[in-house]
Amino acid sequence: MKPDLSYEQLERRRRILRGIFLALAVFLACAGVAVLAVPPETAMDIAIPRAFWGIALLIAGFFVGLFSRLVP
């Protein structure tokens, strides 16, 4: 039988998971900003899909950041 984890072990695991989720959230947000960075002379058929992808990555980063607060 597997012994129950102590409170300190559970807290350590929770902090590690929260750190991983927050790092992922920051990475997604930075990726979204990088995708949104297009020069002004870029053609519209390239700029519009990049804008949608950039906003989607920013929103995904936001929700992963919120999810990190819900880690038990």
Describe the protein's architecture and organization.
The protein has two helices and no strands. With 72 residues, the chain is an all-alpha fold. The two termini are 23 Å apart.
How do the helices and strands follow one another from N- to C-terminus? Answer: HH
Distance between the termini: 23 Å
Rg of Cα set: 18 Å
Please describe the biggest sheet, giving its number of strands, its sense, and whether it closes into a barrel. none
Helix content: over 70%
Global shape:
rod-shaped
Structural class from helices and strands? mainly alpha
What is the number of helical segments per DSSP (H or I, 4+ residues)? 2
Count of extended strands = 0
Q: What can be said about this structure in brief?
A:
By secondary structure, this protein is an all-alpha fold.
Give the SSE map.
Blueprint: H1 7-36, H2 44-68
Short key terms for the protein model shown above:
72 residues, 2 helices, rod-shaped
